Amino acid sequence: MSVERDVVVIGGGLAGIAAALDCADTGARVTLLEVRRRLGGAAYSFTREGLEMDNGQHVFLRCCVAYRALLSRLGSERHVAVQPRLEIPVLRPGASPAVLRRSGLPAPLHLAGALARYPHLTPAQRLGAARAALALMRLDPADERLERLTLGDWLARHGQGPEAVAALWDLIALPTLNLAAAQASLALGVFVFRTGLLSSADAGDIGFHRGTLGETIAAPAERALREAGVDVRLGWGAERLQLTSDGVEVQARAGVDGVSADAAIVAVPHARAATLLEPLLGASARRLRELGSSPIVNLHVVYDRPVCDHPFAAGVGTPVQYLFDRTAAAGAPPGCQYLAVSLSGADTEMEMSVDALRERYLPVLEALLPRARAAKVESFLVTREHAATFRAVPGVGALRPGPRVGLPRVVLAGAWTATGWPATLEGAALSGHAAAASAMEELA
Fold it and tell me: Top-level CATH class of 6-35+235-291+393-443?
């Protein structure tokens, strides 16, 4: 006779959603607790000035199989699209747009033509970049020695100067690691470049959310969870986690009944997890805070006319890192164009006021997009994620825990856990699956 188990999942981000669905699929009774009034965690949408905006521009790759499978489980595939082949328009002030596009050749030859024609590097720099890429392919991301260096240190040792790093390597490092190569862990950098670009020809094809994050993740996730029998409790803030004789209890603020279960999956940001676990684990829980954080700032600019022909583009020789055309998804007024500018590793921008950001970025957008000079800015908004990701610096690998936390019937989930991936949508989904498997294994 089977014994039904109760599992409580704390946190309704991607990791918590994946974990809750997996546990429910095994027949467990699952309760999901989320402090916000919505699901999705750090990937969410909001309404401002009549527009449906995403807090950030979350992209994924063809090789992100766990995230794509989760979208399929939610029934959200129609809201996303993956490029037939990797293609990155690159804009530089005063220069014609360039395109980094892969060919149909096998890896790593699929990028040879794009690199050979890339106008933002000299011929010597292109040759040096090719040699560095081949050398990087020979590195093992699991080699502990890679945790002692930054990606920038390694690139410098392999002949990549600041211009080459800024014009090529940081195009990938910044959006995936949320840090520039000069600061980022070599181990994570090797993983990103090998997994996304160098090991398989189609792995790095970019996937986009054509719809808003709310209609791609939050709404379908709530529907899928409830259909799976999960008790979804929004606006429920976990204050304390307590072990009992036969399981765990999650306690809320005074006057709200706690939730008891046979096992708990803690799927909240690492600083919040440290607070919940510190009374039970002490110093080992406090150590989670050493993962640090790296911010992301997004600028939301609405022009009174189209100023950019690309659905997205990268910037070189400009503070603009990436920009995305979100006109259709947001429901912008007829004739207007809404561009979202994504700034990763944005420590400086995080401290700037909205007026200061407007004063700095509108002129550089005009330098990048000549038609913006004659356009009127209808709206300029800023969203900030102070702790968007853990800080992917050297040594961070030793701080990332696995699902097991050293407590009976308590496991961890989150993109900050030891998934092998940086803090990405894929890492979050993988961590949820690992946490559910770990919890059900322990209960078995």
Answer: alpha beta
